[in-house]
Specification:
2 copies of one chain form a homodimer. By secondary structure, chain A is α+β, with helices and mostly antiparallel strands. The first copy, chain A, is built from 7 helices and 16 strands.
């Protein structure tokens, strides 16, 4: 999505829709819910984005941001920002803030798609090895891993993981152990979680028209019928001026979020959810149908859950299928082209 | 292994044991066996290495080189070179040479471990993105993919694949399709093949002593009992002066090859085989026992074969397990540390 300020820039070059995604798991006797909105805004000032609106339930507060979204759980922070935001620069201040309420980091996951315009990013962003080195300098007592997943000479996705030293043993027995049950470090109980992202490029121009402010009536009809993928969710959305669209949704202790950059020369949409699903392929097909991408990637993170993603998607060719087995986690990356 | 000339250099810094590995599949009405040894030596002059000795059978000629090995099949070339050899620079001349006997390229695979001393390599070698760009400039009509597999901030392995455009569709149904049967492009028949590499670092100093010329008696006893892994193989080996050891073995239409750099500050050994095996884990354990590495990686390429590698290796922790599904191929990369 775009702020008015960045529109003049993007007219000349293009907006960086692809987000930086940071997920931090904390442990300790208190809760992130003790942190006030103005304290979060101080963090977001470093990132260079603003809180537009919030929704909340008993588990989660969802912040709709000027550049994407933030979800705050008791012991988990998910911060996703697009454009030229400086997400990583906020980590030291986040760690200070949570330390003041006696929370410490358990694990972190940082990821992003290959940027459209890496040269426009501010250090340490833009060059993946710089981002990894920056994170390694912060997470010194952790097992850390920086990966480039997919073609370096094509669409790819970058992932950084920092986990506790004691949690680093992978003793796996063949591919069937994907979906195995491992006790994780948080409170000693087995956490089950699955997170799916669908990152879409070169979107259908006709389907993009409704994501401009000038066509906001079309969007109103559309979002009720189509974009509200989970019927019972509590939803917060925003149509940017002159274009761009964001949705946050909460459903029990799960979230989903959608962000759309509709400009034809840099069109991009992302869908992310941790809401459990019966048929993952069906969900992928529904989302892809909304935006009509020429190519897209899926990233499926699974903690102690089977990864039942059939890689066949009608009308697309799967050009890459890569499975990583991380300590306690499995990850499947697929890349599709028409 | 080392030539006398490079010893003085490596005393100051270290020898680059980790090899560059090029495998090219050809198609056409003739055979690579028509190419003479002096024509191959012309190619190897560009790479900067020499033929030391050869063995052959009905299927294959195996060349033991001053820097590693070359295997020539009717329609397949495998060239593996270590040190600061300039392997990629030879590709244009290889393509000219095979073109003169009416062969064309079907697929190529180029891979290497992360270098110990990338700054000592000659362009395009040393920086993976340069190597990928160089190969892309040669293989313009192909589907190409350059991957970094494993941690960019730790041990990793780089792979480049160029396959025919028509062979690029991945329509897979879940992880169980690993080992599926796909007709490949060569002659329309289903080729089955499996290639295993074990790349070992920080080797046991005591086990390294026998790979010095001064202890050649120990090696003679040892190689008969231990290093000759396939009892019926035709074997060609070389102990370098002052140290370093290479073996080529042929068994029917399969090969294996071992290369050892025993110097403590840059110790490295590689084992590669396409000989079919009943128990892959047992083979890995046997090889690891010979060299005593503190860490090692396995790469298992499988064409239309099940990948029955149990990732558990006694005494080691599996730090990475990554599976790539390439068109017609599956690849499993594992990294182990003590």
């Amino acid at each position: 999505m775009l702020t008015t300020e960045t529109v003049s820039q993007q007219t000349q070059s293009g907006f960086e829709g692809p987000e930086k995604l940071l997920e931090i798991w904390f442990k300790g006797p208190t809760s992130l819910h003790q942190i006030t909105q103005s304290q979060w805004q101080n963090i977001l000032d470093i990132v260079k984005c603003k809180i537009l609106s919030t929704i909340k339930n008993d588990h989660t507060t969802a912040y709709l941001l000027s550049e994407s979204s933030m979800f705050v759980y008791e012991h988990k922070l998910i911060l996703k920002t697009c454009g030229t935001t400086t997400l990583l620069s906020a980590i030291p201040t986040i760690l200070e803030l949570v330390s003041s309420i006696s929370l410490i980091v358990d694990s972190i996951f940082y990821s992003r798609k290959a940027f459209f315009f890496p040269e426009k990013q501010e250090f340490p962003h833009g060059v993946w090895s710089d981002e990894v080195e920056y994170l390694d300098s912060i997470f010194k007592g952790f097992n850390t891993a920086g990966y480039v997943i997919g073609k370096i000479n094509g669409d790819h996705w970058c992932l950084y993981v920092a986990t506790p030293m004691c949690n680093s043993d992978l003793n796996l027995i063949g591919p069937s152990s994907l979906g195995k049950e491992i006790a994780n470090g948080i409170g000693g109980k087995i956490e089950k979680e699955i997170t799916l992202e669908i990152l879409m490029l070169d979107l259908d121009p006709e389907k993009m028209q409704k994501f401009w402010k000038s066509s906001s009536k079309d969007l109103k009809v559309f979002r009720i019928n189509k974009l509200n993928i989970y019927k019972d969710a509590q939803v917060d959305d925003h149509l940017f001026d002159p274009c761009g669209y964001s949705v946050n949704g909460l459903l029990d202790n799960f979230y989903y979020t959608i962000h759309v950059t509709p400009e034809l020369h840099c069109s991009y949409a992302s869908f992310e959810t941790c809401v459990p699903f019966d048929n993952l392929n069906d969900l992928v097909l529904r989302v892809v149908d909304i935006f009509g991408p020429a190519k897209f990637s899926t990233t499926l993170f699974s903690m102690n859950c089977p990864m039942n993603l059939d890689c066949a998607v009608d009308g697309f060719k799967c050009r890459d299928r890569i499975i990583h087995s991380l300590p306690g986690w499995d990850l499947m990356f697929c890349h599709y082209e028409k």
